[in-house]
Amino acid sequence: MIETEEDSKRWNFTPATIKKVQQRAAFICSNPKCRLMTVGPSLKDDDQVQYAGKVAHILPASKGGPRELTGTTSSQRQSMKNAIFLCSSCADIIDKNNGTKFFGTPEDYRRKVLFIYIEDFSFLEQFHNTAF
């Protein structure tokens, strides 16, 4: 089989998708066993921030990558539904260990992470409604 340009292309997220995923995660690692805050003040420059997060692909950014599902389209690879926000350590552990699988299917993992976000947000809302 002849490899086409589409077969070898990496489908990265757009800057808009990256920003939305970061914000939806509140810059907190989406691994339920980690939950590390990935942004904070720089220790060297008061005008800067330190950032240690990555918007990672659940299914690979290119054909043949780790966690590949046959038939994944380029638009699915670039979709926000295929994005997850992780701290740099969790992202590297997953990608550098032969594509260690997420918990269950990618969709199951997304649902679990989304539930955590909603649960966190609900707690903040309750706190603000009762704290003052």
Could you characterize the architecture of this molecule?
- The chain has 5 helices and 4 strands, in the order H-H-E-E-E-H-E-H-H.
- The protein has 132 residues and is an alpha+beta fold.
- A two-stranded antiparallel sheet has the order 1-2. It has a two-stranded antiparallel ribbon with strand order 3-4.
- A hairpin with a 7-residue loop joins strand 1 and strand 2.
- 20% of the residues are buried.
- The mean pLDDT is 76.
Compose a concise summary of this entry.
This protein is of the alpha+beta class. It has five helices and four strands.
Question: How do the helices and strands follow one another from N- to C-terminus?
Answer: HHEEEHEHH
Shape: globular
* Gyration radius from CA atoms, angstroms: 17 Å
**Major sheet attributes:** 2 strands, antiparallel
- What share of the residues does DSSP label as strand, in percent? 5-15%
Topology record:
Layout: H1 5-8, H2 15-24, E1 39-41, E2 49-51, E3 53-57, H3 74-78, E4 83-87, H4 88-95, H5 106-131
Antiparallel strand pairs: 1-2, 3-4
Summary keywords:
alpha+beta, two-stranded antiparallel sheet, 132 residues, 5 helices
